[in-house]
Amino acid sequence: MNDSPPAQQASPQLEYAPRPPIHRRRVFRRVLMLVVAAALFLPTAWAVRRGRDRIAVLYWQRRCANFSLPAGSVAYDENPATVATFWASVGSSGNYTQIIDSRLGKPIVVLMRPRGQWETSIRQPLGGLNQIGALFLHARRAASGKPQRIICVRPSEAIIFRRTLPQLYDATSPDLSIEVHDYATLTSDSNRLSRQSVNVARLAGEPFGTVRFFAGQIDPSDESHFTIDFQTATGSGTIDGWLRVGDAVTLTLRPAPASSPAR
Questions:
Q1: Cys-Cys link to 174, which of 25, 79, 197, 255 (CB 3.0-4.6 A)?
Q2: Which H or E run includes 107?
Q3: What is the value of pTM for the model shown?
């Protein structure tokens, strides 16, 4: 009889699969997706913001190119007796701004400044329209086949500030300033093609409080032509403007009729 104990059975061995390569691990894939998403987010957000800003520029530019107020609408008023009342009636329209005399703490000038002019100014710091205001703002074409240009005519500093700085200006100072711009695109701002300051009617020599301008009007029969009416203490007048080939603007004072009583 064999009394020896039975042989111990070998304990089972567990088989472990080798770890997958790092690029196949779930955690790695998740981290990689987050890194890729973060890398794409910044340029995508920039492109979306840039596209939105450009669309806004083109929208306000179109508003400038088509801007108009009815004939007879006041574009500039400096009469102390009417400025406050005038501002109260038009200040909420978005088409006007006021210039304050800091010493008096009240407006001395109310000037037409369409919202489109302001928006294109702040959105195109290097190529935008001036921010002061306008007497005429619209697109004109020098000749058939030529591109449209946006024209902005405004009172000069001599007109606006001759009350607060009379020592700097006289009748020989420019009374109007003109800017001509081309159009912005989806990829570029507009360019100022020309800028002029001219003395058309010697209005800088008029006593402060006596000059009033009316909103400029386009000539529907001539794509290059526009007019700006004005009024002084002694009468009224009309300034004719033409956009010329070469992107300059010519302004001339229309000869007065035999009698031109103040309106």
A1: 197
A2: strand 106-112
A3: 0.80
